[in-house]
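Researcher: Sit down with what I've pasted below and flag anything odd:
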Amino acid sequence: MLSGICTINLYFPNSHSLKDKRNIIKSIKSRIRNNFNVSVSEINNNDLWKNTTLGIACIGNEKRYLDNVLNEVIKFIENQNKLQVIDFKKTIL
């Protein structure tokens, strides 16, 4: 069994409060879970208005499968209008 882990740093240019940011994050996390069957959590910068880091994890039997799932999640997040991806890091163990 292998596990795929991805951390994604995000920037919210139109967020003017923690409430704005949390609404966006809640929606994105829900859609990621439903579409890709992965675990998602906000793991850093919880109290900042404009930035956050999401942690995404999945398990599987093949490295290629895990890499494809994480790539699809990253593409999905990059296509969101209300945020920008600053950087990301993928690890498959």
About this structure: Residues 42 and 54 are 5 Å apart (CA to CA). The helical segments are 18-36, 63-78. The mean pLDDT is 94.
